[in-house]
Structure formats: structure tokens, C-alpha cells
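Fold this sequence, please.
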Amino acid sequence: MSSSSISSTLKPTKPVSVFDDGDYHTVLLTLEPGKLDADNIRPPTPLLIGTPSEGGEYPVLLLLHGYLLYNNFYTQLIQHIASHGFIVIAPQLYTIAGPDTTNEILTTAKIIKWLQIGLKKVLPSSVHPQTHKLAISGHSRGGKVAFALALEKTTTSPLKISALIGIDPVDGMDKGKQTPPAVLTYVPRSFDLADIPTLVIGSGLGEMKRNPFFPACAPKGVNHENFYDECQDRAWYFVVKDHGHLDMLDDVTTGIRGRSTYCLAKNGESRAPMRRFVGGVIVAFLKACLHGCDSQLLGIKDGGEGVPVSFSKVDVRS
């Protein structure tokens, strides 16, 4: 196992907006996989973990990356959320993958099983994960995987999930071209999520092509609109105008795949507003679901709280 502190940042004093960095110092840890040892420390896949460094008990958020992306492309988003008092776990589910997401679903289920025992052993000694308060989020194809887990696709035993978040989720190339296992049924309010509160975030530019030779990253018919349409009660929906499918990633994403994030998707003028919004609305949503404090989430719905973006649609099913 490799466990190393990458960075530590000083956060501003209270009061602070959910769209700004929070009050906690954050530390980034990297964990490498391997066979389970006597202490169950090695995870089943590489992990990037953002955590407050101050002692305390913190809820856990699992963040699943998008198609052919790296977990370290979400470092700024991870730190933003962690700085508000959450432990964020971002696995690297694969480096190369075909259309079938079954292995990603099964691997994520293994990660959830591992963190019940192994997570506390790799965190700073005074940091205690509240694994009974587990939220699952995913971006793009990772959003599909998050919903599949919540809907118990391919899993043999139910997982305890306290909140579900889809960040511009995508279920394939087009309607009728879903990647297996299909998540969308095209029946309104058909998702049986066992009353799990759900947040769906959409990008206004995600269904638009940047290049005529490449498909849209979040095609109409398999995107956020369809996922929210199948949600039942306790669901929140925000569609961000003038921002694209990859605008919640880091400002700088390196390597061939990193550079391609600026070429394959139609982007907004800057990533920072979308990334700040995604981080902030996730923080507000988790505070509402896990801490019972919904004032900031309600303020965002009403256009307050210093929202850094414009909405093309907002909807709530209470």
C-alpha cells in the first residue's frame, strides 16, 4: 500500500458559502490496491481520498469518475467538498473499458464493503468515518454506475446508501443504444430507490456536439433529463445553463486524456463556476440529507446563496 499526503490547504473562517472552500484543512491521500493483508488496509482498486485533517467524525461520499477519465481530474472538486466536513473517496475503476459497466458496478460494491473495515485504518488517527452515512455520486458513466448500485443492478445484497447524486449522468450513446446493464426504463418515476434522497445535476451544453465527427458527451435521450424523469419523491434537479459535460473537472488536466477534455465536449467559458456549483450544491444536499439542515439547499433552489451559475431548469419532488 502507498499512502501519502499530497496537499494541505488552509480554509477560511466562518461564515462561508457552500460555493467557497470550507473551514476544514484538507489532505489528499493515495492508496494502491493489492491482496488483502491481515489489517484489511489494501482496497480493491486505486483510491484518491480527500479528508479533513482535523479530528472528528465525518460522513463519506463516494465519487465515481466519468468514461475514460482519471480520478485525479477531480482533485479540486474533491478538496472543495472535503473542506466542508466530508470524506470523499474517488476510486480509479479502470483505465480502459468497453461498453459494459458490470465490472465497475461490482468493483464499486467491493469498495463499499472494504471501506466499512479498511477506511478508518488509512485516515489520520483522529479522523473517524461515519460509514453509516454513505452517499454515492458519479459523473457521466460514473453516474450511471451510481444509480445502478442504488437500484441493485448485478448486486446480490442491498447496500445501505444515505444519498445518491448523478453529476450529468449518461446511460449510453443514444436512446436504444444504452450500455449494459441498462439503467433507464423510459417509464416516468420508475426508479425504485427505496426512498433514497436523490440529486441530479445536468449541464446545458452536454447534449451539444463540439465536433461533428464525435458524438455529444451527454446525448439527449440518455442523459440527466431522463434520469430525473424516472426519479420518484425526494429528488432535486438542477440544469446549469452555458456549461458543459466536463466543466466540473480540474482547470488543468494533463496527458492525452486530460487535454482531450477540452476538445471532445462543448465547454463553458471557464470551468471554475460549474465546478464551484457542483461542489456547493453537493455540500448543501449532503447537509440536508445527512445533517437535517436544508436551508442552504432551499436557498440554492430559490436562486440565492451566491449561486455562481445560471439555471435553465430547477425542479424538486418532495
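The CA atoms of residues 180 and 291 lie 35 Å apart. The chain is about 25% helix and 20% strand.
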